[in-house]
């Protein structure tokens, strides 16, 4: 299955970074396209978007300063289908993308994504105190997968902290 294209640009306010695309995203060519994924609902409810977007509109979020990429580009059924070498390669590719595009905030959609990227074993939700690339704010948010057992209001609350930061800093 082909990789889905990143949505990247210089000076993004937020670059959302996932584990890897779902099979549904691979089929459609759009980020967070699985109907059980709550990503776009979370962004809307947290105040990051003015309306509820559909996965087919993912590229439109570039106009708002939001981009998309993954630590592993290959679509899979789940993260259990990704091997260690893919994470190691993806980590280096992701770091190169961050250095090149320099988003103001790198938002890792899931603690596991961030731990794979940073090689840190323990992280908390929100902004990280010691970013891998010092000039880029690193924010860890819950996964938007429908498999996550955290209450939706708690997930939205964490993303709302990101929206408040963006609003406060005019980014």
Notes on the protein architecture:
- The chain is 33% helix and 13% strand.
- The protein is α/β, with parallel strands linked by helices and 171 residues long.
- It is globular.
- The model has no long low-confidence stretch (mean pLDDT 92).
Q: What key phrases describe this protein's structure?
A:
single chain; 171 residues; alpha/beta; Uracil-DNA Glycosylase, subunit E; 33% helix; globular
Note the topology.
Elements: E1 14-18, H1 23-28, H2 39-46, E2 66-70, H3 84-101, E3 105-109, H4 111-118, E4 126-127, E5 137-141, H5 152-168
Parallel strand pairs: 1-2, 1-3, 3-5
Antiparallel strand pairs: 4-5
Helix pairs in contact: 2-5
* SSE succession: EHHEHEHEEH
Q: Unreliable runs, pLDDT <50, ≥5 residues?
A: none
Query: What's the number of structural domains?
Result: 1
End-to-end distance, in Å? Answer: 35 Å
Report the strand count.
Answer: 5
Rg from alpha-carbon coordinates: 15 Å
Strand content: 5-15%
Query: Widest sheet: strand order?
Result: 2-1-3-5-4
Q: How would a crystallographer describe the biggest sheet?
A: 5 strands, mixed
- Structural class, from helix and strand content? alpha/beta
CATH superfamily: Uracil-DNA glycosylase-like domain
Number of H/I helices: 5
The CATH class turns out to be Alpha Beta
The CATH architecture term is: 3-Layer(aba) Sandwich
CATH fold-level name: Uracil-DNA Glycosylase, subunit E
| Helicity level | 25-40%
Mean pLDDT over the residues: 92
Quick one: overall form?
A: globular
